[in-house]
Amino acid sequence: MASTAPHLEFAPPHAGGSLRALALAILAHAVLLAVLSVGVHWNSEPVQQTFEAELWSAVPVEAAAPAPLPEPEPVIEPPKPVPKEAKPPPAPEIPNAAAIKAEAQIALEKEKQKEKQKEKELQKARELKEKKLAQEKQALEEKKLAELEKQQDKLRKEQAEKLARTKEEQQKKLDQKEAQQMAEQRQKAIKRMEGLAGAGGTGAANSTSTSLESRSLSASYVGRIRAYIKRFHTYTETVVGNPITEIEVRTSSDGSILSRRITKPSGTKSWDEAALNAIDKAERLPLDENGRAPSPMTIIWSAQEVAR
Question: Which residue stretches does the UniProt record annotate as biased composition, category Low complexity (predicted)?
Answer without folding.
Answer: 204-216
